[in-house]
Design goal:
Order of helices and strands: EHEHEHEHEHHEHHEEHEHE
Number of domains: 2
Distance between the termini: 52 Å
Strand content: 15-25%
CATH superfamily of the largest domain: Reverse transcriptase/Diguanylate cyclase domain
CATH class of the largest domain: Alpha Beta
Number of helices: 10
Structural class: alpha/beta
Number of strands: 10
Radius of gyration: 24 Å
Helix content: 40-55%
């Protein structure tokens, strides 16, 4: 099987430049082309390229505007951007670099130099991606880490606030995990966590949703653009997925197999709500689920009046 080529988006409205870049880069990379700024933004979000060659002079928005938009979105903010321009002023170069571009190439371009710079930045991107994957993945369960969750949560909070969309969080905890560990041993405890992690991760179907290990036997699920009804329904799916594992637990006061309690909170982010108030509300509902008998889902709609629903 052939190795998948890295993807490059070339956003430029000059046909001759596009043809030159195609001839220079097509052997090593999978190329995408945009001839206006709106098309560039749409392709970047759809394809998530590994690198963008972005002309400063674009229409209807400038390359600087597109760079700002790409750096504002979670899906595209880490894509390296190389500005390409006929401007040789230091002010424009400084502006581009300060906006987050990794390099600045002036026209007329030299194909060998462009090829070398692209290769260098691609190698740096691949190395950075590898480090981020290591930092973002929990070694035991294969799920996202708490650090990864917090990063994505802040980004999705801002996005949902801009679009006035609901955001839901589920806090999940394995019932009576300490007696499980104490009686079956930490090896069995680790295997239990692995199985639960796979079960939870296996239920996530939308790319926007994120399940992470929050700490110990506690997990968290982030559900953007999801109202209370949808989040509660998914909470019951996750609870059932863990129960269906039928992992033996003779020391549980709930069942003879491993079960999970879940607390869910939903809000539409605005200036009246602090992001981690939503996390705390979900954690409070988790406490209520445990107090109410465990192996259950409790949920709350967290708005300005803090109305609570079962």
């Amino acid at each position: 099987m052939d190795k998948k080529k890295p993807k490059i988006l070339i956003a430029n409205d000059e046909q001759l430049f596009v043809q030159l870049m195609e001839a220079t880069l097509q052997d090593e990379y999978d190329l995408f082309f945009a001839f206006n700024s709106d098309e560039a933004f749409e392709i970047a979000n759809r394809e998530a390229p590994d690198l963008v060659l972005l002309d400063v002079v674009m229409a209807p928005k400038s390359g600087f505007d597109i760079c700002h938009l790409l750096k504002s979105e979670r899906r595209t903010r880490d894509i390296p951007i190389l500005f390409v321009t006929s401007s040789t002023t230091a002010e424009d170069e400084v502006k581009g670099l300060e906006m987050g571009a990794v390099d600045y190439i002036t026209k007329p371009v030299s194909p060998p130099i462009v090829k070398a710079r692209v290769r260098n930045h691609m190698e740096l991107k691949q190395y950075k991606d590898k480090l981020e994957r290591i930092a973002a993945e929990d070694v035991l369960t294969g799920l996202a880490t708490r650090r990864r969750f917090e990063d994505v949560f802040q980004s999705e909070w801002r996005r949902c606030r801009r679009h006035e969309s609901p955001l839901s969080i589920a806090m999940l905890d394995i019932d009576y995990f300490k007696p499980f560990n104490d009686n079956y041993g930490h090896g069995a405890g680790d295997e239990c966590l692995r199985k639960v992690g796979r079960a939870l991760g296996g239920e996530v179907k939308r790319a926007a949703d994120l399940v992470a290990r929050y700490g110990g036997e506690e997990f968290v699920c982030l559900m953007p653009d999801t109202d209370l009804e949808g989040a509660s329904a998914f909470g019951h799916v996750m609870r059932k997925a863990v129960s269906d594992l039928q992992v033996r637990h003779e020391y549980s006061n709930v069942n003879h197999h491993v079960t999970m309690s879940i607390g869910i909170a939903t809000c539409t982010p605005d200036e009246n709500i602090e992001p981690y108030d939503l996390v705390r509300r979900a954690d409070r509902k988790l406490y209520e689920a445990k107090k109410g008998g465990r192996n259950r889902v409790e949920s709350a709609n967290y708005e300005k009046k803090l109305e609570v629903h079962r």
